[in-house]
Design a protein that fits this description.
The protein is α/β, with parallel strands linked by helices and 1186 residues long. It folds into five domains: 193 residues, Rossmann fold (3-Layer(aba) Sandwich), CATH 3.40.50; 184 residues, no CATH class; 226 residues, P-loop containing nucleotide triphosphate hydrolases (Rossmann fold), CATH 3.40.50.300; 150 residues, Orthogonal Bundle (PCRA, domain 4), CATH 1.10.486; 153 residues, Alpha-Beta Complex (Lambda Exonuclease, Chain A). It contains 45 helices and 26 strands. The protein is globular.
C-alpha cells in the first residue's frame, strides 16, 4: 500500500484543521477554484501540498498544459515531477477504499468521492495521452520559454548555445576588453584614465569585481535597464540622480574660505596651542601640530594642503573615525595650569574652540565624501556600461546565452507594451493555474516580471488561479538577490487582486518535541532582538513510535579548545621525518578533533540507536546506516579535514567538493600522463606518471633512473629507453606507443585507448582503498567525459586541451568540473524496502546548510557553530529599490569608510536582511532533524580577562543561553548502551528490519531480480559455450574481484553484510556484463554457506587478508586468495569454479600450489598451524593435506 511521504491522516486532521472546516489548510490549498498563499514552517509538507493541488487540478478537469509550476532548482523541479508521477501511478493500483482515503486527505468531500474514484484511477492515462505535458520548471526555465515565445520583431538574443560555465565565458569574452583598456587607445583612452583614478580608491581586485564581478552590471543588466527607464521617465541623467543621492556635493566647499578669519577662528586655535604648551607630553605634541598648521597658513600654503593636517590633528586613524579625546575635553595638566593662573574660566572657551573647528572639518569630510562618491560612480558607470555592452555583443556575435540572459529577455519582453500584450495573449491561452514553490527565494526582478504578467488581468473577468507556498524563515539566498520581504508584499497583492486566501501554518511533522522546544526557545529570544522576525511558536505532530527503540536527543558538545601549532624539530632526519606543514592553521587542528568526536558518535550510534521506518500503523525499526547521518557546515573550509578523519575512522562520506575533479589525485595522474605524452622530457611529470598506479614504479626504480640519467648526462625520457630495468622498459614501451597515438588521435579517442590498453579502471580499482574506490572510479570516468563535455570536445591538439584544463583548475570553483558521481540511482525495488532512503545508505552526507534545505535526516550534526556572523563587504554595488516599487530609484558603488548618509541607510537595510538570514540559516539547520541534533564548535582564544571559549553572538552562545544541555563525548556515548540482538525489546509486535550496514543477513539471501528471462538465459549459455575457456577465466576473475572488494569492506566495518546490487558492483569493479550475473550469483552462494561463516564473518575470526602477495626465496610472486587467522590456526582459502577429482593432474597442481603457500606462511607465522582448503562455486569445501 502507498504510504504518504509527508502527511498522515492525523497530520491532515489535527495539523491542518478539521476536514469539515472549509477554511482548513487542505481545503484552501487543494481547492481548484481558490487562489492561496501558504506560509508554512519547515517539515510541514509544503511540497506535498503543492503536488496535491496539482493532482486536484487534474482531477477537476484542468488540462495538463494549463498548469504552470515554478520552483528554484532543476533538482527540485525534477523531484516535483517524480512525486507527481508516483502519485498518479499509485492511484492506478489502489482499490476503491484506498482511493477514498487518499482523496479525503486531499480535500475531496464525501459527496464528491464516488464520482471522483474512476477519474482518479484514470488520471495517469489522461496525463500520458495529452500531447502537452504539465509545465514544471525553474524561473530561468520559464523565462526561457517566454523568450522562445517572443515575436520575431523583438530583436533579442534568444537563440544560441546555453553556457553553464558563466564565469569562464565572461573571462573569454572580456579578454579583448581588458586588452583595449590596457592600451588606452581611441574610446578607451578616457576609460583608462577613469580606471586609474578609481585604482587610487579601490584595490585592483575590488575594482575588477565592481566592473565584471558577480554583482556587476553585466550580471544585473535587467535591473540596470529598469533604473535607466526610471531616469528617462523622470527626465533625469545618471549624474542628476547621483546628486540627489549625495546632496552635500551640490553645496559649496565648507573649507573654501579656510583662511577667512571671520569664518574660521584662527586666533582661538592659537590660544588653544599656547595653553596646550603648558600641558603634558601629548598636549605639547598637539600644540606643535597646531603651530605647524598656523605657520603654513602664514606662509600662504594652498589651503587644501592643510586639510590632511587637520584630519590628523583632530581625528583617530581607527577603522571608525572619531574625534580624539584630547579635543573633547581639557587635560588635567592644562586645567591645573589654568587654575594656577586664575584662568579656569578659559576651559569652556577652549572646548568651544575645539568643538567649532571639529564641526567645520567634519562638514568638509562629509562634503568631500559626497563629491568623491559622485565622481567615483560616474567613472564606474562608464566603465561598467562599456564592459556590459562588450559582453552582450560577444554573446550575440557568438550566439551564446547564459542564465542572466533569460531574466533579461523576459524582463524586456514583459516591460515592452507591444510584446507584453502579444505574450500575455499566448500565456493566457495556455496557463490557467500558476503554482510557485519556495517563494521566499524570489528576487525583486523575478517578482517584477511575474507581477507584470499578472497586472495584465486588472479588470478582467477571468483570471488565473495563483498558488504561492514558502517560508520567509528559510530565505537563505541573499547572495542571489533573494528578498524574503517580497513574500508579505506578494501576499497582499494576490489577496487584493486575485482574492488569494493567506494561511499561516506552524505545525511540523518532522521534528520531535525536544527539537521543537529548542527552536521555540531560541527564536523567542531572537524575536526579542529582531521584533519583526517572522517566527511564530511551533508545534509538532511527531510522536515517538516506541520509546523502547527511539530516544530523541538534542545537545551540544563542549567547544574544542585552541591548540598550539607544532614546531619543527631542528635535529630531525629530513629524509625520514617530514617538515611541519606551514599551511596548517589552529582551527584545522581544532576541526580535526571536532570531527573525530562526531565520527565516534556515528560509529557508536550505528550499533546502539534505532531508526523508525514504515507507517504509524505498521512501524518498523532498524539500526542506523551511514546515510541516516547528516553533517552540516556553513562553509566548505574544513571539508578535507572531514574526509581525512572519516577515512581514518573507516566512515564513508560524500562531501560537496564542487570543482574538485581536477584536484583529485587520480585526475592529476591522468593530467600528468597527458603532459608527458606532449613533452616527454619533463622529468617532473614523467616521475609523477611512473609512480602512479598506472605503472606502479617504486622509489628505487626512480632513484635508479635518476642516477642513470645523471651519470650519462641524459634526460629521464632518454634514460628510460636505455636503462636495464624491466618495469621502466615496459613503461617506456607503453608511453612511447601512446605518444605516437597522441599525434593524430582526438583527445577523447586517445584517452579511450589509454583507458582500455592501460586497464586504467581495473588498475585503480585494485590499488584504491575500499573506502574511496567508488569515488576514484567515478572521477576517472568523469575525466574521460570531460574531454567531450568541455568546449563540446573541439580540441585541435592535446596541448590545447591541457591548456584548457589548466585554466579550469585555476578558475571559479563553482564552475570547475565536479568530481564523479558515485551514488547510483535507487531502484524501485530498493525504494520499496522498509526503511530505505533515496539517499545512499552507505555514505554520511556532508553538506552546506544551503544545500541541505529541503532535506531531512534522523541524525543531524551542526558543526563550527561558534563563529561570528560574517561582516559586511568593504565595497560593492547597491541598488536603491524600495520594497513595493516597480523600479530601482538609485544606484551607487561604495566603500565602507567613509560613507555618505545614502550609503549608510542602504547598508542598514542590507545588514538587517543579513542578520535575519543568519538566523534563517540556523533555523534551516536545526529543522533538518527527525530524531537527533548535536551542535559542535571551535573555541576562541581565551584570555585572563575573558577565559570563555564562546564567541558572543555566535549560534553556540545563543543555544547555550536558551538552555540547550551540554554533554561531554563520554557522557553522550554512555547514554547509548550497546544492545545485543537478544536484548532488543519486541514491543507491540513491531518489526525489526535488518540493515545491510549493521546486521548479518546470511545465510538466507533475497532473490535478486535481474530481468533475465529463461529464454535469454538459454541464449546466454549457448554463447558462453562457444568460448568456454575465455569465459571461465573472465568469470573466475570477476568472482575474485567481488569477493575481495566485499570481504575487505566487511573486515573494515567488522560486519558481514549482503552484497550490494549487481549495478553497484558493476559500476565499482568494471566487470563485463556478460559474466556479471553468473559471478554475482556464485559469490552470493559462496558467502551464504553457514559452514563458511567462520572464514567470512569478521566477528568469528581474528584477522583476514585478501589477495595476499608473498615472495618466496627464488623471487617468485605467490598470491593467496584469502588467508584467515582463527584462534588456533591460519587457514588458506583458494577459490575455484570447480574442484577436480583427487589424483587428477589438476588436483595435484592445486595441492602443490597450496603447499607452497603454506610453506611461506609457516615461515612467517610459526606460532600457528596452517591449513588449506579449496572452495568451489557452490560453496563446497575440500581439505588439502599439507
Amino acid at each position: 500500500m502507498f504510504v504518504n511521504i509527508v502527511m498522515l491522516e492525523e497530520f491532515v486532521g489535527k495539523g491542518c484543521g478539521s476536514m469539515s472546516d472549509k477554511n482548513n489548510l487542505i481545503s484552501i490549498a487543494c481547492n481548484p477554484e481558490q487562489s492561496a498563499v501558504i506560509e508554512a514552517c519547515a517539515g510541514s509538507g509544503k511540497t506535498w501540498l503543492l503536488i496535491s493541488r496539482i493532482f486536484r487540478l487534474l482531477l477537476s478537469g484542468i488540462a495538463p498544459h494549463e498548469i504552470l509550476a515554478i520552483t528554484f532548482t532543476r533538482k527540485a523541479a525534477q523531484e516535483m515531477r517524480d512525486r507527481l508521477e508516483k502519485i498518479l501511478i499509485d492511484f492506478t493500483k489502489f482499490d476503491d477504499c484506498q482511493i477514498r482515503e487518499e482523496l479525503l486527505m486531499r480535500g475531496v468531500t464525501e459527496a464528491e468521492i464516488d464520482s471522483f474514484i474512476p477519474l482518479a484511477r484514470g488520471l495517469f492515462e489522461k496525463v500520458l495521452s495529452n500531447p502537452q505535458e504539465i509545465s514544471i520548471d525553474t524561473f530561468h526555465g520559464w523565462f526561457s520559454k517566454i523568450s522562445q515565445a517572443a515575436p520575431l520583431t523583438s530583436e533579442l538574443n534568444i537563440q544560441g548555445v546555453i553556457r553553464d560555465d558563466q564565469a569562464r565565458m565572461m573571462q573569454e569574452a572580456m579578454e579583448s576588453w581588458w586588452e583595449k583598456l590596457g592600451r588606452g587607445e581611441g574610446e578607451f583612452a578616457d576609460l583608462k584614465l577613469k580606471y586609474l583614478d578609481l585604482l587610487k580608491i579601490f584595490s585592483s581586485s575590488a575594482l575588477n569585481e565592481l566592473i565584471v564581478g558577480k554583482s556587476s552590471l553585466m550580471q544585473q543588466k535587467a535591473t540596470w535597464d529598469l533604473f535607466e527607464n526610471h531616469c528617462l521617465e523622470q527626465q533625469l541623467s545618471i549624474e542628476d540622480v547621483l546628486k540627489e543621492q549625495f546632496p552635500l556635493a551640490s553645496l559649496p566647499n565648507p573649507l573654501e574660505h579656510l583662511y577667512d578669519e571671520t569664518i574660521f577662528n584662527w586666533g582661538g586655535l592659537q590660544l588653544a596651542a599656547d595653553f596646550l604648551n603648558n600641558g603634558g607630553v601629548s598636549d605639547v605634541k598637539n600644540a606643535n601640530s597646531i603651530k605647524e598648521i598656523i605657520l603654513k597658513k602664514q606662509s600662504n600654503t594652498p589651503s587644501k594642503e592643510l586639510i590632511p593636517l587637520f584630519k590628523s590633528l583632530f581625528f583617530t586613524k581607527d577603522k571608525e573615525t572619531k574625534v580624539k579625546d584630547a579635543f573633547t575635553k581639557v587635560s588635567g595638566t592644562v586645567k591645573s595650569y589654568l587654575n594656577k593662573n586664575n584662568q579656569s574660566h578659559l576651559e569652556s572657551e577652549i572646548k568651544d574652540i575645539y568643538k567649532k573647528w571639529v564641526e567645520q572639518i567634519e562638514a568638509y569630510m562629509s562634503w568631500s565624501t559626497d563629491v568623491e562618491l559622485i565622481e567615483c560612480n560616474l567613472r564606474w558607470v562608464d566603465l561598467a556600461k562599456s564592459a556590459s555592452e562588450h559582453y552582450l555583443r560577444y554573446k550575440q556575435n557568438n550566439r551564446l546565452l547564459d542564465f542572466s540572459d533569460f531574466e533579461y529577455n523576459a524582463f524586456r519582453l514583459m516591460s515592452d507594451e507591444k510584446t507584453a500584450i502579444y505574450l500575455q495573449e499566448r500565456l493566457d491561452a495556455k496557463y490557467k493555474h500558476i503554482l510557485i514553490d519556495e517563494f521566499q527565494d524570489t528576487n525583486p526582478l523575478q517578482w517584477q516580471i511575474l507581477k507584470a504578467w499578472l497586472d495584465g488581468y486588472q479588470g478582467a473577468s477571468q483570471k488565473p488561479f495563483v498558488f504561492l507556498v514558502g517560508d520567509p524563515k528559510q530565505s537563505i539566498y541573499r547572495f542571489r538577490r533573494a528578498d524574503a520581504r517580497l513574500f508579505e508584499l506578494a501576499t497582499q497583492y494576490l489577496n487584493e487582486n486575485f482574492r488569494a486566501k493567506p494561511f499561516d501554518h506552524s505545525t511540523t511533522r518532522r521534528n520531535p518535541q525536544e527539537v521543537v522546544d529548542v527552536v521555540n526557545a531560541l527564536f523567542n529570544k531572537v524575536k526579542e532582538e529582531i521584533t519583526d522576525y517572522p517566527y511564530k511558536k511551533h508545534e509538532t505532530l511527531w510522536k515517538n513510535p516506541n520509546e523502547g527503540y527511539i530516544t530523541p536527543k538534542v545537545f551540544r558538545l563542549p567547544l574544542i579548545a585552541r591548540a598550539q601549532l607544532p614546531t619543527d624539530d631542528l635535529e630531525r632526519n629530513s629524509l625520514k621525518v617530514p617538515m611541519v606543514d606551514r599551511n596548517m592553521k589552529v582551527d584545522s587542528i581544532q576541526s580535526e578533533e571536532e570531527i573525530q568526536q562526531i565520527g565516534r558518535l556515528i560509529l557508536h550510534w550505528c550499533k546502539t540507536e534505532w531508526v523508525a521506518t514504515g507507517s504509524e500503523s505498521e512501524p518498523k525499526y532498524r539500526r542506523p546506516h551511514l546515510g541516516d547521518f547528516l553533517i552540516l557546515v556553513r562553509v566548505k573550509k574544513h571539508l578535507q579535514v572531514i574526509e581525512k578523519v572519516f577515512n581514518q575512522l573507516g566512515i564513508l562520506c560524500d562531501t560537496p567538493r564542487t570543482g574538485g575533479l581536477l584536484q583529485s589525485l587520480e585526475a592529476l595522474d591522468i593530467l600528468a600522463l597527458l603532459k608527458t605524452l606532449l613533452i616527454p622530457a619533463n622529468n617532473l611529470t614523467l616521475a609523477h606518471v611512473l609512480r602512479s598506479p598506472i605503472f606502479s614504479c617504486t622509489e628505487q626504480d626512480l632513484e635508479a633512473l635518476a642516477l642513470y640519467a645523471k651519470h650519462h648526462q641524459k634526460n629521464w625520457w632518454t634514460g628510460l629507453q636505455l636503462i636495464e630495468n624491466e618495469r621502466l622498459k615496459n613503461a617506456f614501451q607503453v608511453l612511447n606507443a601512446w605518444k605516437d597515438l597522441a599525434k593524430f588521435l582526438p583527445v577523447h579517442d586517445l584517452l579511450d585507448r589509454i583507458y582500455h590498453e592501460g586497464h586504467i579502471l581495473q588498475v585503480y580499482a585494485s590499488t584504491s582503498h575500499e573506502l574511496i574506490r567508488a569515488k576514484v572510479l567515478a572521477n576517472l570516468e568523469a575525466f574521460l567525459l570531460l574531454a567531450l563535455d568541455t568546449n563540446a570536445g573541439r580540441y585541435p591538439s592535446l596541448s590545447r586541451f591541457i591548456e584548457e584544463l589548466e585554466i579550469l583548475s585555476k578558475g571559479d570553483l563553482q564552475e570547475s568540473p565536479d568530481e564523479g558521481e558515485m551514488q547510483e540511482d535507487v531502484s524501485e525495488q530498493d525504494e520499496a524496502k522498509a526503511g530505505s532512503s533515496v539517499e545512499d545508505a552507505r555514505f554520511v552526507r556532508v553538506m552546506t546548510i544551503h544545500s541541505a534545505k529541503g532535506l531531512e535526516a534522523p541524525f543531524v550534526f551542526l558543526t563550527n557553530a561558534n563563529t561570528k556572523n560574517k561582516s559586511a563587504e568593504s565595497s560593492g554595488i547597491l541598488f536603491d529599490w524600495p520594497l513595493g516599487e516597480n523600479t530601482p530609484k538609485g544606484v551607487c558603488i561604495y566603500k565602507s569608510k567613509p560613507s555618505a548618509d545614502f550609503v549608510t541607510n542602504l547598508m542598514k537595510i542590507e545588514e538587517g536582511i543579513a542578520e535575519k538570514e543568519n538566523w534563517n540559516l540556523l533555523y534551516v539547520a536545526l529543522t533538518r532533524a527527525k530524531q537527533c541534533v548535536v551542535v559542535t564548535g571551535l573555541g576562541k582564544e581565551s584570555t585572563v580577562s575573558n577565559p570563555s571559549l564562546v564567541h558572543d553572538g555566535s549560534w553556540y552562545s545563543y543555544l547555550m543561553s536558551t538552555g540547550m544541555r551540554e554533554l561531554s563525548l563520554d557522557d553522550a556515548l554512555d547514554q547509548s548502551k550497546v544492545c545485543l540482538e537478544h536484548d532488543v525489546p519486541k514491543v507491540n509486535d513491531a518489526e525489526v528490519v535488518e540493515t545491510t550496514d549493521t546486521l548479518v543477513a546470511f545465510p538466507v539471501l533475497p532473490t535478486i531480480l535481474t530481468g533475465v528471462t529463461p529464454e535469454m538465459q538459454s541464449q546466454l549459455m549457448d554463447e558462453r559455450k562457444k568460448s568456454s575457456v575465455s569465459y571461465a577465466q573472465e568469470l573466475g576473475t570477476a568472482i575474485h574481484l567481488i569477493l575481495e572488494r566485499h570481504l575487505n569492506e566487511a573486515h573494515q566495518r567488522r560486519t558481514l553484510a549482503t552484497l550490494p546490487d549487481i549495478k553497484t558492483l558493476q559500476n565499482w569493479l568494471q566487470i563485463d556484463s556478460k559474466v556479471m550475473l553468473d559471478a554475482f550469483e556464485i559469490a552470493q552462494t559462496m558467502l551464504s554457506q553457514p559452514h563458511l561463516l567462520n572464514f567470512f564473518d569478521p566477528n568469528l575470526y581474528i584477522n583476514a587478508w585478501n589477495e595476499l602477495a608473498l615472495i618466496d626465496e627464488t623471487g617468485s610472486l605467490l598470491k593467496v586468495d584469502r588467508l584467515v587467522e582463527l584462534n588456533e590456526k591460519l587457514v588458506i582459502l583458494d577459490y575455484k569454479l570447480n574442484i577436480p577429482d583427487p589424483g587428477t593432474d589438476s588436483m595435484n597442481q592445486y595441492e602443490t600450489q597450496l603447499k607452497r603457500y603454506a610453506d611461506q606462511i609457516s615461515k612467517r607465522r610459526p606460532d600457528k598451524n596452517v591449513e588449506a582448503y579449496l572452495i568451489d562455486q557452490k560453496g563446497n569445501i575440500f581439505f588439502i593435506e599439507l
